[in-house]
Amino acid sequence: MDYQAVLEEVAATAAPQVGRGQPAGYIPALAGVDLGGFGMAVADVDGSVTGVGDWQVPFSIQSVSKAFGLALVLARDGESLWGRVGREPSGTAFNSLVQLEYENGIPRNPFINAGALVVTDRLQSLTGDASTSMLDFLCTQSGNPAVSFDPQVASSESEHGDRNAALAYLMASYGNLDNPVPTVLDHYFWQCSISMSCRDLALAGSFLARQGVGTDGSRLLPARDVKRVNAVMLTCGTYDAAGDFAYRVGLPGKSGVGGGILAVVPGRCTLCVWSPGLDLRGNSVAGVAALDAFTSLTGWSVF
Ligand code: DON
Predict the structure, then answer these.
(1) Residue 225 burial (CB count, 10 A)
(2) Model pTM greater than 0.85?
(3) Strand, helix or coil at 213?
(4) Which residues form a coiled coil (predicted)?
(5) How confident is the model over 259-278, as pLDDT tens digits?
(6) Does 101 count as an annotated binding residue?
(7) Were 13 and a residue from 47, 210, 219, 293 both cysteine, which residue would form a disulfide, CB within 3.0 to 4.6 Å?
(8) Which positions are catalytic?
(9) What is 3-298's CATH superfamily?
């Protein structure tokens, strides 16, 4: 596969979508971001990485971190997580409160905010420092020691984090958090604030295409668990747009309101695309268009 030629064609196809949509206005530090950015990277399972556009420009990974959080907890703790969080699509917004009370404080899946707060709580119990353990993992797997938290984004989100706090306190009232709510929220916000490029994220997610083996050759997860993470990404990774994402792209994917999307072609490569303009469900408009173009051009969807 001539990745460079494919990426250039994909970028040209997605170009009319760049600048469309809105930034994540509810996080002030992200509200003013320039909507004109677009980058995309492919990390092949052989370890090579190819990119186009702003593929080396760091952006706020936001909910893309939720895919790594799930993998880190499954790697350390196996199946017990599933007693505290489900694995069904929610059909509601990523920060919705309504289902949580009906379902007794058990979030629908680990990729909506409530579910990721439970995952963060478990990672905190397992490691003693959930956000640093995720950052260390991302630095190692991307091979880039400069991957870092963005304190401005973390504190901006913390100052405007009433909805996440409401989700966390509601779950605490059902006994579904082990650590104090402020601790869980802090680590969750720090994880979301991590700043990385498409290059870094595609490499860091390589284990998802390599049956659990990371870029450093170490086994991070059994192949069986990688199948499970990819399945939850496919069904829940883009929230109440997961059906549309599967229809258009046909790959496991995890989006974030920073405009990034990580997608996996099992056995072949990991893709990361970034463009900050979001649709109404919080997914990058140009990012989804680019992934649609990539799988249409290559035929590399899981279907
Ligand atoms: O908690 C939040 O709302 C954000 N830190 C993350 C949300 C997000 O990225 C949803 N993704 N599309």
Answers:
(1) 18
(2) yes
(3) strand
(4) none
(5) 999 999 999 999 999 999 99
(6) no
(7) 293
(8) 63, 66, 188, 239, 257
(9) DD-peptidase/beta-lactamase superfamily (3.40.710.10)
